[in-house]
Design brief:
The protein has helices at about 10-15, 40-45, and strands at about 45-50, 55-65, 65-70, 70-80, 80-85, 90-100, 105, 110-115, 120-125, 125-135, 140, 145. By secondary structure, it is mainly β. The protein has a domain at about 45-145. Strands 1, 2, 3, 4, 5, 6, 7, 8, 9, 10, 11 and 12 form a 12-stranded parallel beta sheet that branches. The relative contact order is 0.08.
Length: about 180
């Protein structure tokens, strides 16, 4: 008899069907990473502070964990975790965080390790980030600096090219020379 057939339905409920997830590390000489403690995984992915869409806040927000904003915020945000600015959020603040994801509007400077401006996100301000992703349709107005201070020194900005004016001067052809005496 084939296993699983002809047995009571109770036996089928004991075995949940798991989705197939291929492990591509086997057979390539890459050792399996040690599983991280469950506590560390929940702290990084869980939003510890949340400002909902019907709320507004003015001041300074400091957090060692992730922050989600769907309402109005004005001031300064500092987080060791992630900052998620929701689609309807309006933020007027300087942000310093680990990772920042923006779907709403941010007016202020952002300093983070990675920044993602999603397709309906708007950022007006300067960005300093290790990695930057700007989706098609997103708006970014400001300057961006990627990497760290140790990566490279900033070159001096190029001067605008000066175009000499020909007004009031006589332009000569190659066969004719022009001299002016005073």
């Amino acid at each position: 008899m084939i296993s699983g057939f002809g047995q009571p339905e109770v036996a089928e409920e004991e075995h949940e069907e798991q989705p197939f997830v291929p492990d591509l590390t086997h057979g390539f000489g890459v050792p399996e990473p040690a599983p991280a403690p469950a506590l560390a995984q929940t702290q990084t992915s869980e939003v510890a502070s949340y400002l909902n869409a019907s709320s507004s806040f003015k001041g300074m927000l400091k957090s060692s964990r992730s922050v989600g904003i769907d309402g109005h915020f004005e001031g300064e945000i500092q987080s060791e975790g992630d900052i998620v600015v929701g689609r309807e959020a309006e933020v007027r603040a300087n942000i310093k965080a680990g990772n920042v994801i923006i779907s709403g509007q941010v007016v202020g400077n952002i300093e983070c390790s990675s920044l993602e401006i999603q397709s309906n996100g708007r950022v007006i301000g300067n960005i300093t980030a290790q990695s930057l992703l700007i989706a098609m349709g997103a708006v970014f107005r400001g300057q961006s600096m990627m990497g760290t201070d140790h990566d490279a020194e900033m070159p001096e900005p190029f001067a605008d090219p000066v175009v000499p004016s020909t007004r009031g001067r006589r332009v000569s052809s190659s066969s004719e020379s022009t001299e002016t005496t005073e």
